[in-house]
Each structure stands twice: as C-alpha cells, then as structure tokens.
Amino acid sequence: MGDDVPTGDILNPRLPGQRPVLNPWPPFPLSPMFITLGRLPDHPTAIARAARLAGLAPADGARLLAGTFPRILLRVATEPDALIAALTAEGFLAWASDPAEVTTDARRVLVRDLTWTADGFLAQDAQGASHACPFTAVRLLQRGARTHTSTEIEKTTTRQLSLGRAVLSGGMMLTKKVTQTTERTTHAKEPFLLVQRQDGAPDLIMYEHRLSYQCLGAEMGPATLANLGLLTARFQKLCPQAPLDDRVGRPGFVAGLPLMTADPVDLGLFLVSEARYRGC
Asked: By three-state DSSP, how is residue 271 classified?
C-alpha cells in the first residue's frame, strides 16, 4: 500500500477545540446513521416540513421534536447526506451521527478523587490511576443524573390452617407451609458532573456518591449533593471557557428520546455535546 493512502483509526487526531473528524476512508462500514436537529427555522410549519422531508407522518414528527432541543428526527437514515442537504436548504440545523460514536462510562474516567495543581487537576480513578487535565483542556461541563434500578426478591414461608390436610391425616396434620414471593423494584437517581475534554483524552465523570470531596477543603459540607454543586461552581470558575449545560437533567429531555441501542443518558450527553460543537 502506497504512502499516500490513509490507513489507521477511523478518527483522525483532533486539534484543541475541534471535534473528531471521520476518516474519509474508513477501514470498515459505518453503522446506519441517525439524524438530529439542533434548531428549527422560525416558521410555523417547521415541524411538519421536517417530518415531510424525513418521510414521517406529521404526528410522529411532532412527537419526536417535542421538548428541549436537540432532538432526534430519524433513527435510521438510508440516505443521510441527501436528507441533511434537504433539511439545511429549508433552514434547519441538522447533522448525521453514527450510533457507535455515543460514548459510555466504559470510555470515560470514573473519578473517585481530585487534586488541584497549578494549571489543572489530577483525577484518580477507582483503580488508583491518575489522569492529569489542564484547565484549558476542558471544553464543556454537563450536569445530569443517572437512574439506577435494582430488584429484590423476598420469599417468606408461613404455616396456614388446612382443613383438607387435617381430614386426610385424621387430625394429625392441621397446617401446611405456604411460600410467598414478593418482588420489590427501586429506582434511585444519582446526579453527576461530566467534564468533557478537547485534547483527545477521555472525558471525566464524577458521580455524587462515588467521589471524595476533600478537594473542596474548608468548603466541604455534610451533604454530597451540595458538595457536587460546589465542585461544579469551582470548575466553572477555573474553566471559564467551558459552558455549563444541564439539558440532560431537565425533565423530559432524556425520556423524550427515541429508543435506540445506546443508553438514553449517554445518548443525551452525546447530543448536547454535538449541539454545542454547532453553537446550539
């Protein structure tokens, strides 16, 4: 293979402030793309026009585009480039994404402790490894919450009077064992702060109940949620170039996303990140 033929990763190296760019010669076929709208044109029939271009019924378009933007218009686009061009010509801010681009916690640093340095901080993960990050490398802060669902199954055994058994046993056995199974499902929300980087290193996520707040010093209080708020404010002060976005935590934003293979919270974080790249 000649030197002029690009090879290697599907993602080209990124410069500070730039998002990854898809290699025009990918080594394997991309997944079916989905279409996102970041902004509607100022027109009363904008949603109906978007639905028509995407081949959707007006009612489906209205449902998919209800609520806080960005919103996913189409989960699978057979001709994404043509649809993006048509939407753009009508005044929509639209883009296509590969579901494989949606980042999960498996590709993030789950921070357990923080140490401030002269020009940044050190984030320690659960394995004890340290990850250095300059303040200038932070491009976006996102607040949200992830819901953890757990199910407990409880079995209880009691003895109950059994007339039939008493008759059959001649009065020797008056009771029988009865086992009852109870299933209890609980849902618990855990707020987080996502620190997104623009230098190519993995993003860092900090969950309310998994983080030591010793980095707050004298400001640290007894309530973890309040401490997470203080830590967020500290990052805003130290990284003035990085906006704080809370769309993922707003009521209905994640719940209103269409069902896809990606985790809904991770999908929401990805959509906001992509929207921020495009100024919305």
From this structure: helix
Among 23, 30, 31, residue whose Cα is nearest residue 7? 23
Evaluated on CA atoms 78, 82, 84, 90, the torsion sign reads negative
Q: Which residues pair with 122 in a beta bridge?
A: 115, 132
Nearest to 141 by CA among 268, 243, 36: 243
Quote the CA–CA distance of 80 and 82 in Å, as a whole number. Answer: 6
This prediction has a pTM of 0.80
For 29-81, write each residue's pLDDT tens digit.
457 899 999 999 999 999 999 999 999 999 999 999 999 999 999 999 999 99
Question: Rounded to an integer, what distance in angstroms lies between the CA atom of residue 102 and that of residue 85?
Answer: 23
Q: What is the CA radius of gyration of the chain?
A: 26
**Which of the four pLDDT bands, split at 50, 70 and 90, describes residue 4?**
very low
Specify the CATH architecture of the domain 105-147+189-246: Roll (2.30)
Residue by residue, DSSP assigns 52-116 as HHHT--HHHHHHHT-SSSPEEEEEEESSHHHHHHHHHHTT-EEEEE-GGG---GGGSEEEEEEEE
DSSP character at residue 246:
-
Alpha-carbon distance of 118 to 83, in angstroms, equals 48
What single DSSP character describes residue 255? T
Q: List where CATH 2.30.29.150 sits in the chain.
A: 105-147+189-246
Instruction: Provide φ and ψ at 99, rounded to 5°.
Output: -55, -25
Cα separation, 74 vs 32, whole angstroms: 11
